[in-house]
Give the backbone structure.
Amino acid sequence: MPDDPTYESEVRIPSDTALGLRVQEQIIEVLRSHQFSDKTIFGIRLAMEEAIINAIKHGNKQDLEKFVQVRYTINEEHFLIEIEDEGPGFDPEDVPDPTAPENLERPSGRGLLLMRAYMTECDFLRGGNICRMRRIRE
Amino acid sequence: MPPTQRRIETEEIGDVTVVRFVDRRILDEQNIQLIGDQLFALVDEDHRTKILLDFGSVEYLSSAALGKLLNLNKKVDKMQGQLRLCRIKPEILEVFQITRLDKVFSIYEDQGIALESFR
């Protein structure tokens, strides 16, 4: 475990999915160095991928002049991440339940479902522009 | 323009096309697009109607990739074909279970049993 038990970082990227993937890889490395288990990292990676892609594609509509801000904290208790876009926001309540039989083959809502399933908490703030997710250590 | 990189490998076993994925992580947006295009071409251009997707090498899968699989399933259905999935790692299987897509796709543990299911 690193000397300082709390690690904080922040990165701001243009709305490019390749850059989003690079940020994820960097965060995964930090999680590994803080002894998060492979199983926990698997879930965090999936949830982060979905949240960052949502911010870039659905939030900022892949407009390279718009940015995605990623802030995260790791401590002995948890991993906390906030992903903020510059888009119009959205109401998560409007997203259909993808597990309802009539929606099973529809494209939307599955990413949000995975984020909620793999993270301990997943909330949307400021009209849906900020996704805050927390994962408690096992 | 550089040639498009193959993101899937195919093998004909009897009348079944077995598909293996080149990537361990099916997360990257551009790769997912390529994988989708190459899978769809099996049906639209090569007219394959019995397809077995072998997930033995896949370690991560995003919801965008699941969307492509659903579209492939629809295409195969439309051609009155059959799509099967096999050798999905437990962590990935959990993704199918959470999204209830384990109810939509025919999933087999073993490639041999999956192949037999086509007959």
Notes: Strands of chain A lie at 7-14, 67-74, 78-84, 121-125, 130-136. The longest strand of chain A covers residues 7-14. The two ends of chain A are 16 Å apart (CA to CA).
